[in-house]
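User: I'm putting together a small comparison set for a docking exercise, and I want a reference complex before I start. The sequence is below, and the ligand is (R)-mevalonate. Could you produce the 3D structure with the ligand included, as structure tokens?
Assistant: Of course. I'll restate your input first, then give the structure tokens for the complex.
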Amino acid sequence: MQKRASKVRVSAPGKIILTGEHAVVYGFPAILAAVNKRLVVEGRRIGKQTKIKVLKSDIPIGAGMGSSAALAVASAAAQIALEEKRWDLNNINSIAYESEKKYHGNPSGGDNTISTYGGLLWYRKEAESFKTFRRIIPKTNLPNLFLVNSGIPKETTGEMVSKVADLCSRNPKKINRILAKIEEVARKFLNLLIEGNGDWNELINENEKYLELLGVVSETGRNLIRGIKKIGGAAKISGAGGITNGSGMVLIYHRDEEKLRSFCENNNLEILPVKLGGEGVRVEK
Ligand code: MEV
């Protein structure tokens, strides 16, 4: 009889949000992309118990790149692998969603879904028990995108989601108009990805404008984004944002990489190149 494995290593990717953060909490669509930065956990069976520890991660923590979702996904998957249950992504995703809820309160479920399935997804939370998503296969190669950290937000994702919820209850008409505008951006982005029609610069900047209207971008974040716009690029926060200090990672598009590099060098900013469409959760050899 074969001995059951007592140790397993599982990795899951971090994510960026091309468009639709915050709006996705209210049932609007988001375009999510897994990235080439991963977190690895090790699961061990000790007697009847399983213990999970995080071995390593190159996903920046608390910067809007889905590090907590990647941890939830990898941990759920490690548990399933150790218990020799069927490797079912749906199941891994729902277990991870439950731990995201404990951690963040009212998440859309997008972060755990993209970390589970990987690639690029069009995602919607229609209702708590009805979430839909579909893989996006881009028509052409994606452009080079970059990340620059505008600073770790003081607020947690859960707090940022609550802030938008407060705003929404105080001024539902205005906030709904902004969310509907974000959906328009998401549709244009989808068109850009699957048909090749549209402009990265324009869409990223337009999305950022609405995020600023939602009040989720700090002054530090806004200054960085203005600077990038001034040199002809486009930038937006990616994730929940932050108000008091930084707003986490800023996603940048620039046709002229050299120009962006020298801007970052002059301003002492570290550039993190990022590849979209990373593989979802997997068992490591
Ligand atoms: C966080 O990465 C994205 C938010 O839209 C929250 C969520 O989707 O749960 C701000």
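The mean pLDDT is 95. Strands lie at 7-19, 30-46, 49-57, 120-127, 130-135, 145-149, 234-237, 249-253, 271-274, 282-284.
User: Thanks, that's exactly what I needed.
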